[in-house]
Every structure is written in structure tokens, then in C-alpha cells.
Amino acid sequence: MDNIKHIFFDLDHTLWDFNKNSKLTFQQIFNDQNMAMDMNAFEEVYMPINERYWKLYREERVNQSSLRYGRLKDTFDALSLRVKDETINLIAKEYINNLSSFTHLVEGTIDLLDYLKQKYQLHIITNGFDEIQYKKLNNSNIADYFDVIVTSDSVGVKKPNPRVFEYAVKSAKSIAQDCVMVGDSYEADVLGSFKTGMIPIHFSDNNIHQIPDKNFISVPKLADIKQYL
Prior knowledge:
By secondary structure, this protein is an alpha/beta fold.
């Protein structure tokens, strides 16, 4: 790690607490729509469906609108709830409009960023949508930590496509071997960055993505990254 000069972070599930903020957003929308909803039951069904749709999105098998509609439609169907398409589309729109207004960060985010900012240049690589990722960073008061912010929208392809990482490294005016990528997705962040020549660190806090290859660094808490950097 002696040659490392740049640290790239994924945003959702890594620094920005997607699960908590998403749940609060849906709770607000359901209340506004006067929809009685067991939020624990909803989240239990929604989360794996959302993960599946994001995998399809990364693989270019669904577009943004299909992801936003499909994950809700499938969730309501699984819960045996009859919800009109116009209501689903309204919820999908309100979700995007309100998600970034919630600002909970993963435990240890600020402490780690303060520690790393003294030693490295920090950047973001995210598959999220331009329209809300910048709002998340600004509303959570962490945008100023990062020099380069790369979204899949700005590149035209998504992680783990190597073009995303190559574009990000070039934007940072560096080479891959001088860069670390920190993220929660084994497929998108770990394998994607490794194939580009970067050093990956897998953040495994939510245990959704199990890391099968022990040759990669994997940490259960953000604070644990300090022992490597």
C-alpha cells in the first residue's frame, strides 16, 4: 500500500446508508398516500428484489424506468397487494424525488474520511443516477471530501465494466496501481476494480455480498480500513 495515492469509494451501502434512508423515504411516501404498510414486511421483500433489479441494470438488461417500476411492482405482487400502475409510477417518482433528503451515513464514515483525507486524494465511483447521487453527497455534507465524482451516467456504462474504473483513474490523473477501490459489491466493486489493476477493499457490513476469494481484503466495519491505509 506504500504507493497508494488515491482512494475511490462506492457510495450506496458503503458510505451512504441506503437501507435506512430508503426505508424512511418509503415510510414518508406511504404515509402521504395514506397507504397502510407494514414496513418490516415491505423491506424484507423489497430489498432482495431491488438487489436483483440492480444486477439486471448493471448487466444492461433493464433501463432506469424498468428498474424503478419493476422493483415496486414485483414487491407489491409478492405481498399480494393490488396497486394500480399509476400509483406505482407515482411512488417510484416520489421515491427518487425524496430519497436524497435523508442523510444517514454508514457508521464510521466521517471518521474514516477525516483520517484518509490527510493522506490521500478521495473520490467516488457510483452506479447510481446523476440526478440523486450529487444530492446525496451534498445533503449528507460529504461532497467536499471528494475530488473526482464518477457516475455510471457520466461514463455511459456501469460497474463492473472496466471503462468506468479507467475513466475514473484517468480523471484523477493517476494510474490504476496507485489506486484503491472500497465498495460493498463483490461483483461491481471488487472484481471490477481488480480487473482494471486497482487494489480492492470489500466492505462486507450488510453481508448481502459474500466474498468467496480470500485474496482480497474484506472488512466488516469502515474503521477497519485504517489498518491497511
